[in-house]
């Protein structure tokens, strides 16, 4: 069984050292600013600054966005000023000029999500070739690899109501589109021979926070993750940071949805498997407008995920998984 080493840090801690023969990337969700000038928030700005420092220290190869890239109604077209005002002019550190792998959230689907796909051909670092896609990266010269499978959970589960935000996704608008993606997901997972296999989307499988678990992902995605020995599922949507792991299977669930703000809700504490909550962070502090993000580092034998507070880059939590898929 996968060996888990859990460490929650209560005070400031330096950024962890870079692992040898490793691949590192940063992950952030729900960072999308606001729809009126200046189109960003203090929390997003702090997150961007902190990510730049961490990316430089850890030599991040790329960044992973877990959706809700533009609040509240996405973008209108590929020329929308939001691409510059909320992304290009905010994440300006030289260490963040490497590729950004993008996934789509419900707020992105409220607008023109196809414009975000088209922006791949405009920006030097924005990468969203389709609603869902996969990328594989080498870890070392011995052939070990990391595969990321980025999915569109809104096409699978449906678009939440923009006003009645507490309501769960109602189900896919197009059953055919959803079935096509389910078929693609299973085929992609079946064919993977990666050392580490990570699946990433916006809606959570499990969460204790405001929105809670996503029923269709629990019933259909979770069995696939277990069957094909995925290493972890990364998501956003709820504005908190969580690590959930049910000891009966090896899949770890990391929720990284606090790029824009943190929310203290624990409304769905009873809706996840008993005893599966390993870590949760989501203080609401009006006096300290801050966010959170994560780094993920993999070697041939270990995957290390670290949660950071953007106020001062201090480490909130670390977890190391040993024994990869192969």
Architecture blueprint of SSEs:
Layout: E1 4-8, E2 23-28, H1 42-58, E3 62-65, H2 82-88, E4 100-102, H3 106-109, H4 113-118, E5 126-127, E6 133-138, E7 145-150, H5 153-157, H6 175-191, E8 196-200, H7 215-227, E9 232-235, E10 241-245, E11 252-256, E12 277-281, E13 292-298, E14 302-309, E15 315-322
Parallel strand pairs: 2-3, 3-4, 4-5, 7-8, 8-9, 9-11
Antiparallel strand pairs: 1-15, 2-13, 6-7, 10-11, 10-12, 13-14, 14-15
Can you walk through the features of this model?
By secondary structure, the chain is an alpha/beta fold. The chain is built from 7 helices and 15 strands. The chain has helices at residues 42-58, 82-88, 106-109, 113-118, 153-157, 175-191, 215-227, and strands at residues 4-8, 23-28, 62-65, 100-102, 126-127, 133-138, 145-150, 196-200, 232-235, 241-245, 252-256, 277-281, 292-298, 302-309, 315-322. α1 links the parallel β2 and β3 (62-65). The longest helix has 17 residues, at 42-58. The two termini are 13 Å apart. Residues 1-15 have low confidence and may be disordered.
């Amino acid at each position: 069984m996968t060996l888990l080493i859990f460490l929650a840090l209560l005070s400031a801690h330096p950024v962890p050292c870079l692992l040898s023969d490793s691949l590192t990337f940063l992950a952030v969700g729900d960072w999308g600013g606001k729809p009126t000038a200046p189109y960003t928030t203090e929390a997003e700005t702090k997150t961007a600054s902190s990510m730049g420092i961490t990316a430089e220290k850890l030599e991040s190869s790329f960044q992973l966005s877990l959706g809700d890239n533009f609040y509240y109604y996405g973008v209108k077209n590929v020329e929308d000023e939001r691409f510059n005002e909320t992304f290009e002019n905010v994440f300006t550190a030289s260490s963040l000029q490497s590729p950004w792998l993008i996934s789509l959230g419900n707020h992105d689907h409220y607008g023109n999500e196809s414009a975000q796909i088209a922006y791949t051909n405009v920006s030097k670092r924005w990468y969203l070739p389709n609603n869902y896609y996969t990328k594989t990266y080498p870890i070392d010269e011995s052939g070990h690899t990391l595969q990321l499978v980025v999915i569109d959970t809104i096409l699978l589960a449906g678009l939440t109501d923009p006003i009645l935000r507490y309501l769960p996704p109602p189900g896919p608008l197009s059953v055919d589109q959803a079935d096509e993606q389910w078929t693609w997901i299973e085929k992609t997972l079946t064919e993977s021979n990666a050392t580490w296999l990570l699946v990433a989307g916006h809606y959570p499988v499990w969460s204790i926070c405001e929105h809670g678990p996503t029923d269709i992902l629990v019933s259909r995605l979770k069995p696939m993750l277990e069957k094909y020995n995925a290493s972890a599922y990364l998501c956003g949507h709820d504005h908190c940071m969580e690590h959930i792991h049910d000891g009966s299977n090896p899949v770890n669930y990391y929720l990284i949805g606090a790029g824009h703000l943190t929310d203290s809700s624990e409304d769905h504490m009873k809706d996840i498997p008993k005893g599966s909550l390993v870590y949760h962070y989501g203080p609401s502090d009006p006096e300290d407008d801050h966010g959170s993000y994560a780094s993920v580092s993999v070697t041939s034998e270990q995957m290390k995920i670290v949660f950071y507070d953007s106020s001062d880059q201090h480490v909130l939590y670390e977890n190391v998984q040993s024994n990869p898929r192969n």
